[in-house]
Amino acid sequence: MQVILMEKVANLGNLGDVVKVKDGYARNFLIPEGKAKRATDANLKAFESKRAELEKAQNAALAKAQEHGTRLEGFMLQITRRPARTAACSAR
C-alpha cells in the first residue's frame, strides 16, 4: 500500500514522502495514528495545498524540542535510597 507521510517517521521517510509499506503496518499503525494517509489523487492534492503549514508546524516542534534539549544539557539527577532491611534483592 502506498501512503503519504504526514510527519517524519523513523526508518521510513520525511513529511510528504510517498512510500510503499505493508498493508497491515499502514492500516494498524500509520493511518490510525495520523502519521500517514493513503496515496490517492484526492489526498495528494489536499496534501499539496496544506504542505506549507504542515512543514511550518513540524519546524516549530523541532525548534521547541531543541530548546528543551539545551535547557536539559548538563542537568544531573541523583536519586538516593536507603538499603532494604531484608536481603530480598541479594543473590540466593
Brief description of this entry?
The protein has helices spanning 23-30, 41-72; strands spanning 2-5, 18-20, 36-38.
Task: Walk me through this protein's architecture.
The chain has helices at residues 23-30, 41-72; strands spanning 2-5, 18-20, 36-38. By secondary structure, it is α+β, with helices and mostly antiparallel strands. The chain has a three-stranded antiparallel beta sheet with strand order 2-1-3, covered by helices on one side. The protein is elongated and about 65 Å long. The model has no long low-confidence stretch (mean pLDDT 89).
Strand content: 5-15%
Instruction: Give the end-to-end Cα distance, rounded to a whole number of Å.
Output: 53 Å
The strands making up the biggest β-sheet line up spatially as 2-1-3
Which sequence of SSEs, written as H and E, runs from N to C? EEHEH
Count of β-strands: 3
Helical amount: 40-55%
Topology:
Layout: E1 2-5, E2 18-20, H1 23-30, E3 36-38, H2 41-72
Antiparallel strand pairs: 1-2, 1-3
Key descriptive features of the protein:
single chain; 92 residues; alpha+beta; 2 helices; elongated
